[in-house]
Design a protein that fits this description.
Layout (H helix, E strand, L loop, with lengths): L2 H15 L12 H10 L5 H14 L3 H6 L2 H8 L5 H18 L8 H5 L6 H10 L10 H9 L8 H11 L5 H14 L14 H4 L2 H10 L6
């Protein structure tokens, strides 16, 4: 089976199992999504969703966040990983949004990536999910599953993104990004996973890959 054939079959399975994938981070507009995604680095989505209600109650717009003292932002996000750095970046990017973008989140990847603390993945999530622009953000779940399924070599996140963009129709990227994340959480965890019984790994993963992961997990292979 070619990679293109695998991709087509995987897309059908994901549409059946996860037809209505939603962004796992609570947000109400492009700015709150941007902040939530920034906070999710080195932090679980569950933790971010516990933190953001208090943060957004204090400041939910770039103007309000820019006027919030950095120490106050830090106190509200303290339980997130890398909180001091994130607090600095949140305040700094809010000031830039007010000063250079009229208090609005830009739609362009280049402009987003120029903001403090905003990398390519974060920017891609925002343009895809806030503005509907085709993008294929690759997080750890997608990077891991693309390698398991033989859709990419898994050498780098950048290579995985390029491979997936080539394999799947452009109009499906935004939906697939979320579907693969949810599939990884519900059906295909990183550890203790029986690939042979998985709805996708069971046929998409190579026998070599199944043996390797079984050995790492201390399980017997069949």
């Amino acid at each position: 089976m070619t990679r293109a054939e695998k991709a087509e079959r995987i897309q059908k399975i994901l549409d059946e199992l996860i037809p209505d994938a939603e962004v796992p981070l609570a947000h109400s507009d492009p700015f709150t999504l941007l902040i939530a995604v920034l906070l999710s680095a080195q932090c679980t989505d569950e933790r971010v969703n516990q933190v953001t209600p208090g943060l957004f109650a204090a400041a939910s717009t770039p103007d309000a966040m820019a006027r919030l003292p950095e120490r106050r932002i830090h106190s509200l996000i303290r339980s997130c990983g890398l909180a001091p750095q994130k607090a600095r970046n949140i305040r700094a990017l809010s000031e830039i949004l007010v000063r250079e973008h009229g208090g609005r989140v830009p739609r362009e990847l280049v402009a987003l990536e120029a903001l403090p603390g905003v990398g390519h993945k974060t920017a891609s999530v925002v343009v895809a999910q806030a503005f509907g622009e085709p993008a294929f953000p690759v997080d750890t779940h997608i990077h891991r599953l693309a390698a398991r399924w033989g859709l990419s070599s898994g050498r780098s996140v950048e290579q995985t993104e390029r491979d997936l963009r080539r394999l799947f129709p452009r109009e499906s990227w935004n939906r697939l990004h979320l579907q693969i994340i949810w599939f990884g959480r519900r059906y295909c965890p990183a550890r203790g996973h029986d690939l042979a019984r998985c709805p996708i790994c069971g046929w998409a993963a190579t026998r070599k890959r199944i043996r390797e992961e079984a050995a790492r997990g201390g399980r017997r292979t069949r």
